[in-house]
Specification:
The chain has helices at 4-10, 14-29, 31-34, 37-57, 66-77, 85-102, 111-127, 135-144, 151-175, 179-186, 202-225, 231-253, 258-279, 283-307. The protein is mostly helical. It has one domain (4-311). Helix 1 (4-10) crosses helix 13, helix 5 packs antiparallel against helix 13 and helix 7 crosses helix 9.
Length: 312
Amino acid sequence: MKRVQNVISESRLTLPVVATYGMGTWAAAGLFHEQWWIQLACFAISTYLMIELNNSNALIRIYSRMVSCSFIILSSAMCFLFCSISQAIAELCVIASYIMLFRCYQDRQAAGRTFYAFICLGLASMFYVHTLFYVPAVWLLMAFYLQSFGWRSFLASVIGLITPYWFASVYFIYLEDFSLPVQHFLQLTDLQFPYDYTQITLQQMVTFVFVIITATTGTIHYLRTSFNDKIRIRMLYNCFIVMNILSTSYLIAQPQHYDFLMRMIVINTSPLIAHFIALTHTRVTNISFCIITISALLLTAYNLWISSSAFL
């Protein structure tokens, strides 16, 4: 017997309805008043790339758009992050890098795709330099899970990572002014020990707790049922889990980077919670789905009420 969660997760109407909900959230948050058109375009492209990430890798073994729907709903719940152009572009680039990296699975000769994946990471770091902290982790994922790490792919990754900076350097050489690049990389030293957690707002804390509960639910479910998926899919989901743990740990240690790290957590949580919603059928999981959905809607309303310019 199909339950509510299964009917919704397998329906072809779910994505259009959720996309409409997302657009409504953007409008309520101040899209027209604040002119967030570039940010909205990045969000739309990111959503499309999440669809492509799911389709090209068959992350869910049945027809379901829950990966992209989960991304839209979780992102909409964090509507107070809509205003940042640089982080929106960095988020888009990270998703694009995932698509290219996953296509390199078990191919140590895939220098071209690795190059393009790290160009995306390099571009992301140009807009948010702390993305560079993820590079060693990506190399480890390539070595242990994607099994695509070799000397060719390593060199391709290094060249790809510095390529955006190489093109940018031409501009700064022309200007004969390197103060901006220096300031850009000096941001990597923006580390605080210990951090004053009293600067974290209630809004940020509530949102963090909800997303982490969602991520934990999806992770536990996947670890318990991963034997049902092919080995390749298991490796990809292991990548999501590792990146989620890394991002959460980084956020707890350095919460001044809350905004970008929450975007990273949402990217990696979306496939995990989508897998849980689409591929479970019990009464308990159906109740969990309803609770998660209602909580997401309430959190969105709360964040809109707290931070939206529409309510000022």
